[in-house]
Write a structure and sequence with these properties.
The complex is a heterodimer of chains A (406) and B (211). Chain A folds into three domains: 1-154, 2-Layer Sandwich (BirA Bifunctional Protein, domain 2); 158-284, BirA Bifunctional Protein, domain 2, CATH 3.30.930; 338-401, Anticodon-binding domain (Rossmann fold). Chain A is elongated, with a radius of gyration of 27 Å. In chain A, 36% of the residues lie in helices and 20% in strands. Chain A is of the alpha+beta class and 406 residues long. Chain A has a nine-stranded mixed sheet, with helices on both faces. A four-stranded mixed sheet of chain A has the order 14-13-15-16, with helices on both faces. A three-stranded antiparallel sheet of chain A has the order 2-4-3, with no helix packed on it. Chain B folds into two domains: 4-92 and 182-210, Periplasmic binding protein-like II (D-Maltodextrin-Binding Protein, domain 2); 94-180, Periplasmic binding protein-like II (D-Maltodextrin-Binding Protein, domain 2). Chain B is built from nine helices and eleven strands. Chain B has helices at residues 14-23, 29-32, 57-63, 73-79, 121-131, 147-150, 165-169, 189-194, 196-210, and strands spanning 4-9, 39-42, 47-52, 68-72, 84-88, 94-101, 115-118, 137-140, 156-161, 172-181, 183-187. The radius of gyration of chain B is 19 Å and the shape is elongated. Classes of the chains: A alpha+beta (406), B alpha/beta (211). Chains A and B meet through α6 and β8 of A and α3, β5 and α8 of B.
């Protein structure tokens, strides 16, 4: 039998020192950012009931989740998503008086992803949610937080692309296509496959103007001028209101000085499972996948028993790390430090020096290998320390600094 | 300016792909010299090209290692990658079909198929699961799939049919068409947005030649 003891399962990773340091720094920066803007951090369990995600609710595909049983034989999953548990919490544990609620989280999620991608099976997500408000201000706020979050990670060349699911839904209602037909159109638009959309549209009877607009949807992305180019005459009330809403969100972002990070894509229809209005994704150079995604999900909380509008986004920390690396912005994050060693009889001096350095905010460690000065210098070089200090029995010391004698 | 990277399928799509790119104003001269270099460049337009096995092209593009790819629809269906499929290039036309012995003609709905041989297991599985609602055993082969029903390995095959001559010569017929196949231009979802202007210009330049 093959022994698996020395391997890790597919899709999970050890995150070692330099990487871990960078990751913690990003997480700390994001936590500080979110809480500074009034979001309260929360934690939900890593393990949840399968029914909260799959089964009747059908929010996640069965085959995408890690499953196992509890002691009573009930089906459990490793959480595949951070937003869904928050919706459950808000529906079941948060009192109405405490709405609107602004919360944030940083945590690991687990998902089998056959499509592979930079996406691992275990990945860290950080994000915010606003529950209890349905307003363009709230949607603009989460997009603004997304922009700030990416910036706080040190990326400056990126784009947040905003779509509006209700616009597509409105047009589809107006067109009178059946659910299956809508799905066919959606798939074509999602792939920006003009030919497929055209073929589908030619099969069904839809008014010429509407047909032209639907066939144009894969092309309707870029700057916000696209919005003014759409004639409102035949798209129906719902789609028209959806465009007004989107326009308001864009105006707010402009006032908040974030317009140059934002573009639009009216053909962004890939995730209709729980999104209901404004949706958005973040892109940057060097990673072929979105670094963040979010949007409005007004119908989700009610699945757990309470009506509550909501919006939010979540960012893939692993994706951000990949982008930083590819754009040569990562640095190694090495904080340096001091190694304090001593000859016989000088331990007290060395220890005092070490304690003082740490109190002063430096990183210092007391030699425990006691292999002599050469061994200390080797260790310091390998670890990238800034200096080695050697204490002698008479209390004098000698310093070996990086670049000089180290 | 950043390089735009284009992945081309090695094989029967290569030449036509190159002539489309040339028609769009790209300098493919390096690509046409039979050199051993793996990555070839058009410095003026800041475009890089490489040739890859067709099945790998969608992978490169999905991960963003290539911004654009040219590849057959058969490979796209089989690989199921998350991409923008922006152009039907129209060449390398054929059909993905279910084929089998002549006796089965017209009887697809009345017989129960248990084994299917194919080079395209995903396409075969999806077709039988969704369109025929059948669970069948898929047997993956690497070539000469027509052999399978002749020697009793499977009842039917799923394969590309261009003229149907190979089938005919072996006493096989097309039982059902799964999809029309031709060469497609695909684009990475992020590249399309980050390099919107340059990529859209290239797409338009190629589309013009197709009209």
């Amino acid at each position: 039998m093959k022994r698996w003891s020395i391997y890790t399962p597919e899709g999970v990773q050890d995150i070692l020192f330099d990487q871990c340091r960078i990751k913690r720094r990003l997480e700390a920066g994001l936590r500080k950012l979110f809480t500074s803007y009034g979001y309260m951090e929360m934690e939900t369990p890593t393990i949840e009931f399968y029914d909260a995600f799959g089964g009747e609710l059908g929010l996640m595909r069965q085959e995408s989740m890690y499953k196992f049983c509890d002691a009573k034989g009930r089906l459990l999953v490793l959480r595949p998503d951070m937003t869904i548990p928050i919706a459950r919490v808000v529906a079941t544990k948060v009192k109405d008086e405490s709405l609107p609620l602004k919360c944030c989280y940083i945590g690991n999620t687990f998902c089998f992803d056959e499509l592979g991608g930079g996406r691992q099976n275990e990945f860290t997500q950080a994000g915010v949610e606003i529950l209890g408000i349905r307003s363009p201000e709230a949607d603009a706020e989460v997009i603004a937080m997304a922009v700030k979050a990416v910036k706080s990670c040190g990326l400056d060349k990126f784009q947040i692309e905003v779509g509006q699911v209700d616009f597509f839904k409105g047009i589809m209602e107006k067109s009178g296509l059946s659910a299956d037909e809508v799905e066919e159109v959606r798939e074509g638009i999602d792939r920006k496959d003009f030919v497929a959309v055209e073929q589908v549209m030619n099969k069904y009877r839809v008014s010429d103007e509407l047909k032209a607009l639907i066939m144009d949807l894969p092309r309707l992305f870029g700057n916000k001028d696209i919005l003014s180019g759409i004639s409102r005459d035949y798209i129906g009330g719902k789609a028209s209101a959806a465009l007004d809403y989107l326009q308001k969100v864009l105006d707010i972002l402009e006032d908040r000085g974030l317009a140059n990070y934002v573009s639009i894509d009216l053909g962004m229809v890939q995730s209709l499972n729980y999104y209901t209005g404004i949706v958005f994704r973040g892109y940057t150079y060097g990673v072929g996948f979105p670094i963040l995604s979010g949007g409005r999900y007004d119908g989700l909380v009610s699945k757990y028993g309470k009506d509550c509008p909501a919006t939010g986004f979540s960012m893939g920390i692993n994706m951000i790390m990949m982008a930083l690396e590819r754009q040569n912005l990562a640095g190694n994050g090495n904080p340096g430090g001091i190694l304090v060693t001593y000859e016989e009889g000088a331990r007290k001096f060395a220890d005092a020096y070490c304690e003082k350095a740490v109190e002063g905010g430096l990183i210092a460690e007391l030699d425990i290998g006691m292999g002599g000065l050469e061994a200390c210098l080797r260790y310091a070089r390998a670890k990238g320390l800034d200096k080695v200090v050697l204490f002698r029995a008479d209390g004098t010391s000698e310093e070996f600094e990086r670049g000089k004698r180290l | 300016m950043r390089y735009i990277t284009i992945a081309l399928s090695k094989g029967r799509l290569t030449e036509l792909s190159i002539s489309l790119l040339e028609g769009a104003g790209l300098d493919c001269s390096e690509l046409k010299e039979n050199s051993r270099k793996l990555i070839l460049t058009d410095e003026k337009n800041k475009v890089r090209f490489f040739l890859a096995k067709p099945a790998d092209v969608p992978v490169y593009v999905e991960y963003g290692a290539a911004d654009i790819g040219i590849v057959g629809k058969d490979t796209l269906l089989e690989e199921g990658r998350d991409l923008y499929e922006v152009l039907n290039l129209g060449f390398a036309k054929c059909r993905m079909c279910v084929a089998g012995p002549k006796e089965l003609e017209g009887k697809m709905d009345s017989i129960t198929i248990t084994r299917v041989a194919t080079k395209y297991p995903e396409i075969a599985r999806t077709y039988f699961r969704h369109k025929r609602r059948e669970s069948v055993e898929i047997i993956k082969l690497s070539g000469s799939v027509e052999l399978a029903p002749l020697v009793g390995l499977s009842e039917v095959i799923v394969d590309l049919v261009e003229t149907g001559r190979t089938l005919m010569e072996n006493g096989l017929v097309v039982l059902d068409t799964i999809a029309d196949i031709s060469a497609r231009m695909v684009v990475n979802r992020v590249s399309m947005k980050m390099e919107n202007e340059r990529i859209t210009k290239l797409i338009d330049a190629i589309r013009k030649q197709l009209m």
